[in-house]
Amino acid sequence: MTPAEVAAHLNSLAKPPGSLGRLEDLAAQLCHLQQTLTPKTTPRRIVLFAADHGVVAEGVTAWPSEVTQLMVRTIARGRAASSVLAASTGTDLRVVDVGTLGPTSPEATLHVWKVRAGSRNLAREPALTVDEFRQAVAVGEKQAESAAEAGMVVVAAGEMGIGNTTPASCLTSLLTGSPTDETVGLGAGADDAILERKRRVVGEAVDRVRGKLPTDPETAIAAVCGLEIAAMAGFYRRAAVLKRTVVLDGFIATSAALVAERLWPGTARQMIAAHRSAEPGHAVALRQLGLKPILDNWGMRLGEGTGALIAMPLLDAAAAIMGMAMLHEAGVQ
Ligand SMILES: Cc1cc2ncn([C@H]3O[C@H](COP(=O)(O)O)[C@@H](O)[C@H]3O)c2cc1C
Ligand SMILES: O=C(O)c1cccnc1
């Protein structure tokens, strides 16, 4: 199905051509991704990957690492922002602990595939070995496979991991070549002192690994990555191969998309960008991937898959308009 065929169909529906604006673009994108004029947006699933970060020891976040596990429990109990938005949009939600610190709580809905208890401090040493990076990628790939096996047509990934805007900024600078003042932001609420430390940590880490990127991209990426980011990259890789429609979340999820596109080119072709986060690096990463977000200026900066989730009703609306009558069926010549 060519873009011209999809456009011709949209223009022959019972409305002035183009009158549903961006909704028509989104409908065309769904038709193109699913190679049909009757795209589906359900059943759908979001998988949230959780992990901790050794770099928190550098004072780059306003929150302690314990919050990661506390929020994982809250998500699993159905009480976090991601849980209520998943419920309200009819999206199946799964939480996967790929590397939090300490023992994981025994919530029934929580899946545990721990590669290690948190990444190392990327300011002092490589955060992950290539082997650990690959293991986390494999966890994400498994989740994409199990979503496809369960019949999910639309999938999204999200994350929970205190400190993870620091590796996300490192990856965004590393993979786009953008300076740190364009990729480092407030995260979950940094003050001026935190922001200054974060800029320095990100700048120095990227300087250390940049030279390895052309010849050994996995080593360079693993050195400044996080386990949940690697898992999201693997999730995207496999979901794209399995031709799922992939909805992107915010800054951290999109840094994982950059990793996936760099290591497995073409992955981003299956992606729809939900929103543009308030984190400055998100726009930089989306630009590099050639993706235009559905929702702009919503000021969201939570992560946890919440941006992807609030875009789901718009995907439903876009799919629904493909069921409209044609102009001639309405008697309009
Ligand atoms: C209560 C709470 C819930 C969250 N849910 C997502 N994040 C978001 O904030 C964290 C990243 O920001 P930083 O790098 O500044 O630590 C990640 O856990 C991300 O998912 C949260 C953060 C907090 C505090
Ligand atoms: O855009 C995001 O994903 C984001 C931004 C700030 C903090 N946590 C997540």
TrEMBL record:
<protein>
    <recommendedName>
        <fullName>Nicotinate-nucleotide--dimethylbenzimidazole phosphoribosyltransferase</fullName>
        <ecNumber>2.4.2.21</ecNumber>
    </recommendedName>
</protein>
<dbReference type="InterPro" id="IPR003200">
    <property type="entry name" value="Nict_dMeBzImd_PRibTrfase"/>
</dbReference>
<dbReference type="GO" id="GO:0008939">
    <property type="term" value="F:nicotinate-nucleotide-dimethylbenzimidazole phosphoribosyltransferase activity"/>
</dbReference>
<comment type="pathway">
    <text>Nucleoside biosynthesis; alpha-ribazole biosynthesis; alpha-ribazole from 5,6-dimethylbenzimidazole: step 1/2.</text>
</comment>
<dbReference type="Pfam" id="PF02277">
    <property type="entry name" value="DBI_PRT"/>
</dbReference>
<keyword id="KW-0328">Glycosyltransferase</keyword>
<dbReference type="GO" id="GO:0009236">
    <property type="term" value="P:cobalamin biosynthetic process"/>
</dbReference>
<keyword id="KW-0808">Transferase</keyword>
<comment type="similarity">
    <text>Belongs to the CobT family.</text>
</comment>
<keyword id="KW-0169">Cobalamin biosynthesis</keyword>
<dbReference type="InterPro" id="IPR017846">
    <property type="entry name" value="Nict_dMeBzImd_PRibTrfase_bact"/>
</dbReference>
<dbReference type="InterPro" id="IPR023195">
    <property type="entry name" value="Nict_dMeBzImd_PRibTrfase_N"/>
</dbReference>
<dbReference type="InterPro" id="IPR036087">
    <property type="entry name" value="Nict_dMeBzImd_PRibTrfase_sf"/>
</dbReference>
